[in-house]
């Protein structure tokens, strides 16, 4: 039997390069005095990231591709559904030279392949090469698959980015009051759609957009890399996403979503380059992702002020597992600030945050309305943090001046347990809202080792209520210690959410030529 190449070797090489880039960014941050690090701590962190990323990549269910004896390329991967028909982008005139626009080729391919939606579905294979493209839309019962050496390059020709209306739960664009540029990979009202690959790359070439944002030259909101709206049964997996113009992955008004095995890297600093933002979504699973972000690594959302309240579509039944995050200016996991439709039943476990502003942050304000409740976090490891826990009821950013000042958010049932952190500036900053306290906070089995130049007061608490058990350093009086006998307080739910019953199938294909 002919020996096949180990597909993980290329992944290991890719991860090594990414870690070199991360280390370079960290050195730049030191040089500008953004955060002071001791040399031994920097080396320790980089080694830890290397180990964590390698373990994550080796454990992920990656695709395997190899040359077929009969010619062409064969490959396998796991997906929510396999497809009866497959074609290559080159069949539709695609040219992977990094210069020729392939927007028409993508649109033509997807239009043709959509005819197979009721006949077992179709897959579009993107071979090795650099494929320059503007925005294009996916179809139902469809898979977009990127070869390990395929790079989608986002076009810098604004005419290739159509403008669409603001999201109804936001009422306006994020960067400007008008509409927004369609995301690079877009879809709406779809069923059974997959974006995956053998660790292929999507490069948003975001510096072009970041400059326009900083110079206030944007009439519309910047595009995201991947956005799927009003859709069901979504898989986004085994890809590398680089330098998004704004948010990277944005499922919105959707359900039954798996996001797995993503490596997301944004140059630091970069504006609003959130990693993964589930927004008014139900039954979502995010796992085995590595994110270096200019903003929150994962930001859970559900609409903005009066628009989100009216739309009334919460994010609920969300699982986040085995996330590794570097975000010097934001959170590993943020809940809000746009949470006016509600956020409920979020379960995060096995989270690692390094050189990140905060571990878990709840962001809200008067006028938001909505709720954040039944939040469960366990098994967090953090290194070099400004805050471990951060809640703020005065975030302040509003869609417009028409928000209702009587619309107060409900924050309750927030549970953290089994947390270890070191080199921390401040253990927690917990600030509720006057006459609207954040209640039902439970923190147990937490050890926080403070930095040499930490704040003298490790905890600040206002307008909050809750309990603690086995927490070091000693929490504020608003969180009375229940004693070591209650070290297992803040129980993590034992049941599984429905998304965990969605199993992936093994799919195999052969492309005759590339």
From TrEMBL:
Its main location: secreted. It comes from the Eukaryota. Signal peptide: none annotated. GO terms for molecular function: polygalacturonase activity. One of its GO terms (biological process) is carbohydrate metabolic process. It is found in: Secreted, Cell wall. Keywords: Cell wall, Glycosidase, Hydrolase, Secreted. InterPro entries: GH28_Enzymes (IPR051801), Glyco_hydro_28 (IPR000743), Pectin_lyas_fold (IPR012334), Pectin_lyase_fold/virulence (IPR011050). The keyword Mitochondrion does not apply. Transmembrane segments: none annotated. PANTHER family: PECTIN LYASE-RELATED, POLYGALACTURONASE_GLYCOSIDE HYDROLASE FAMILY PROTEIN. Belongs to the glycosyl hydrolase 28 family. This is Polygalacturonase.
């Amino acid at each position: 039997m002919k020996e096949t190449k180990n597909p993980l070797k290329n992944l290991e090489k890719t991860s090594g390069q990414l870690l070199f880039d991360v280390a370079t960014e960290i050195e730049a941050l030191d040089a500008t005095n953004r955060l002071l690090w001791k040399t031994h701590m920097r080396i320790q962190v980089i080694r830890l990231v290397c180990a964590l990323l390698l373990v994550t990549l080796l454990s992920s269910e990656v695709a395997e591709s190899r040359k077929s004896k009969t010619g062409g390329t064969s490959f396998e991967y796991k997906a929510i559904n396999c497809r009866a028909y497959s074609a290559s982008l080159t069949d539709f005139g695609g040219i992977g030279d990094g210069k020729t626009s392939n927007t028409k080729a993508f649109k033509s391919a997807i239009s043709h392949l959509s005819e197979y939606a009721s006949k077992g579905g179709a897959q579009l294979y993107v071979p090795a090469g650099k494929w320059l493209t503007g925005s294009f839309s996916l179809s139902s019962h469809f898979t977009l698959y990127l070869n390990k050496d395929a790079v989608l390059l986002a076009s810098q020709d604004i005419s290739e980015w159509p403008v669409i209306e603001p999201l109804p739960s936001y009422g306006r664009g994020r960067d400007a009051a008008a509409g927004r540029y369609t995301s690079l990979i877009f879809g709406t009202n779809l069923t059974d759609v997959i974006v995956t690959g053998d660790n292929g790359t999507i490069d948003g070439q975001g510096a072009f957009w970041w400059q326009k944002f900083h110079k206030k030259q944007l009439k519309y909101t910047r595009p995201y890399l991947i956005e799927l709206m009003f859709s069901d049964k979504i898989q986004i997996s085994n890809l590398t996403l680089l330098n998004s113009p704004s948010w990277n992955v944005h499922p919105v008004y959707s359900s039954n979503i798996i996001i797995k095995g993503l490596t997301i890297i944004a140059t630091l600093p970069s504006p609003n380059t959130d990693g993964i933002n589930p927004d008014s979504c139900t039954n979502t699973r995010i796992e085995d992702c590595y994110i270096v972000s200019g903003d929150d690594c994962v930001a859970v959302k559900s609409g903005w002020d009066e628009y989100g309240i009216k739309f009334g579509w919460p994010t609920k039944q969300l699982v986040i597992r085995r996330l590794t995050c570097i975000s010097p200016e934001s959170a590993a996991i943020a809940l809000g600030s746009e949470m006016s439709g509600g956020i409920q039943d979020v379960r995060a476990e096995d989270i690692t945050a390094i050189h990140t502003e905060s571990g878990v942050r709840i962001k809200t304000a008067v006028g938001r309305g909505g709720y954040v409740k039944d939040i469960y976090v366990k098994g967090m490891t953090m290194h070099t943090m400004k805050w471990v826990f951060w809640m703020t009821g005065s975030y302040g950013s509003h869609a417009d001046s028409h928000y209702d000042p009587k619309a107060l958010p409900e924050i309750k049932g927030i549970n953290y347990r089994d947390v270890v952190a070191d080199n921390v500036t401040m253990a927690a900053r917990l600030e509720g809202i006057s006459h609207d306290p954040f209640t039902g906070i439970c923190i147990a089995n937490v050890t926080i080792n403070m930095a040499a130049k930490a704040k003298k007061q490790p905890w600040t608490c206002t307008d909050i209520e809750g309990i603690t058990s086995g927490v070091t350093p000693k929490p504020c009086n608003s969180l009375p210690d229940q004693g070591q006998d209650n070290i297992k307080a803040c129980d993590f739910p034992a049941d599984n959410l429905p998304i965990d019953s969605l199993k992936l199938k093994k799919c195999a294909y052969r492309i005759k030529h590339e």
